[in-house]
Amino acid sequence: MKVERGAGGVEVEVAAEPAGGAGERAAKRRRLAAAAVPPGGGRKGSGGVGRRVRRRRVQADATAVQRLFQACRAVFRGPGTVPAPAEVHLLRAMLDRMRPEDVGLSPDLEFFRTRDAAVGVPTIRHTTIYKCPNFSMVMFFLPSNAVIPLHNHPGMTVFSKLLLGSMHAKSYDWVDPDPDPSVTSCSSSPNDQLRLARVVVDGVFTAPCNTSVLYPTTGGNMHRFSAIEPCAILDILGPPYSIEEDRDCTYYMDIPYTHHSMTDGAGDMASSVEQGQGRLAWLKEIDMPRELKMCNVHYGGPPISDK
Fold it and tell me: Burial, 94: exposed, middle or buried (Cβ in 10 Å; 0-12, 13-18, 19+)?
């Protein structure tokens, strides 16, 4: 008996052959090679396994921001759609795991180490990681004391992840999301420039913290961010702002509810809303604040491939 190494590195014990049995030895080698091929084998089967392995390897090697992009591309289906609860859970979980390093940031960068407030109005920097008609991925960099004024997100679902720093956030939803302009609304004041809203969020957030999500009519669609220390915020907007598609950004000024009264028994309704759903305020539409200073900067994090 002797030991031969067959295909696939398998050691097989075969009988010794008499001299001159070359043809029989060749036949045995063919049988050994055939036995080493997996069931359903052949070029087609082995190629399929190879492709599956390669796909798994590509997915494992993809950066966190690339995986986030791929998830966004699957979740956001265009204007007029809102992600399903399971899709919201997926994106929120991915963003909750995002680290500054995943988008090329570090707390050691000079921008985040500077705690002293700038002289005058601080400039807010922003960069677009990716943008298409269905969604955009944007980062905002707020120095200490910088403020993104109260603004809305018409028809949009927005995920906001604070990557670095600390900020105060305040957000509102309309008490009456779809008022009929032909009817006197109990959510309007005698001054028709004011509209009643309720506070959804009013608090301080420090990274790392959970991702916040707002929807077209709920979740605090109108919000304001005020930096306590230098901040980096990653926003996913679906769909993105578009003047052509009537999704322009509108700015507001909030006014305490008690500064204006309501008539025709509406005060009783407002009182019940305030008791059941939180504090109220009047919002007045304004032009973009002149003191707002923003500039675009280059994105220097891991690139995204949309192939």
Answer: buried
Which residues lie below 8 Å from residue 259, measured CB to CB, with a gap of 6+? 282
Collapsing DSSP states into helix, strand and coil, what is residue 47?
Answer: helix
Residue 220 identity: G
Per the CB < 8 A criterion, the answer to whether 259 and 282 are in contact is yes
DSSP for 117-150, please give it. Answer: PPSSSPPEEEEEEEE-SS-EEEEEEE-TT-EEEE
Burial class (CB in 10 A: 0-12, 13-18, 19+), 44: exposed
Question: And the tokens for 194?
Answer: 């004011």
**Mean local confidence (pLDDT), 261-289:** 69
Angle between helices 85-96 and 64-75 in degrees, nearest 10: 170
As a whole number of angstroms, the distance between CA 292 and CA 140 comes to 14
Q: What angle do CA 210, 214, 220 make, to 5 degrees?
A: 100
If one compares 274 and 287, the residue with the highest pLDDT of the two is 287
Cα separation, 73 vs 87, in Å, equals: 11
Find tokens 């995986």 and name the residue: 67
Which residue in the block uniquely carries the two structure tokens 């939803």?
173
| Distance in angstroms (rounded) separating the CA atoms of residues 212 and 76 | 17
For residue 128, the cross-strand partners are 138
Rounded Cα distance between 49 and 36, Å, is 16
Residues 6+ apart with CB under 8 A from 246: 154
- Is 12 a residue whose pLDDT tops 60? no
How far apart are the C-alpha atoms of 269 and 212, rounded to whole Å? 29
- Give the SS3 label for residue 130: strand
Kind and range of the H or E run holding 34? helix 22-35
Q: 59: which residues sit within 8 A by CB, 6+ positions away?
A: 67
For 149-192, write each residue's pLDDT tens digit. 999 999 999 999 999 999 999 999 999 887 655 444 445 554 56
